[in-house]
Design brief:
Blueprint (H helix, E strand, L loop, with lengths): L4 E4 L5 E8 L2 E6 L5 E5 L4 E3 L4 E4 L2 E4 H12 L6 H4 L2 H11 L10 H16 L8 H16 L1
Antiparallel strand pairs: 1-2, 1-5, 2-3, 3-4, 6-7
């Protein structure tokens, strides 16, 4: 589900990929619905390609967003109400206890929660493809049986 959702460096908000053009992408803002081009020199990354550092590796962003949704019961998270940086980190530790405390900065957590809020506001509430999670479960079951 996150594959078509993009973050563009230097531009606020998240964007949905509408159409790839020649030497550019046509993107639509999730907040305003306005379509604009993103050129080759813009740093564009799909949310599906982002992961959060954990003590034993990485956790895909989709899984983390699903955990945020479960903790927040599908409602937006008020980052300002969480309080100080220590309080934000404590909240995130409840969501992803194994996150790497040294490599995940408070600003990263704030951005993740901001993205979660933007996705919820845009009506996107499924962050992991069911097919992908079924394939992972099958692979895990297969490796356990061996």
């Amino acid at each position: 589900m996150l594959k078509g959702i993009l973050s563009i460096s230097g531009r606020p908000g998240l964007f949905k990929l509408v159409n790839p053009g020649k030497n550019m992408l046509i993107v639509e803002s999730l907040q305003t619905g306005r379509r604009t081009p993103a050129y080759a020199h813009d740093k564009v990354i799909s949310l599906a390609d982002i992961s959060i550092y954990t003590v034993e590796g990485d956790e895909p962003l989709g899984n983390v967003l699903e955990a945020v949704k479960a903790k927040a019961e599908g409602k937006p998270v008020d980052v300002k109400a969480l309080g100080s940086d220590a309080d934000i980190r404590a909240y995130f530790a409840e969501i992803l206890p194994e996150f790497d405390n040294e490599r995940v900065y408070t600003n990263d957590i704030k951005k993740l929660l901001s993205w979660y809020n933007q996705l919820i506001a845009a009506g996107i509430d499924t962050f992991v493809d069911e097919e992908a999670s079924n394939e992972e479960a099958t692979a895990e079951d297969g490796s356990k049986a061996e």
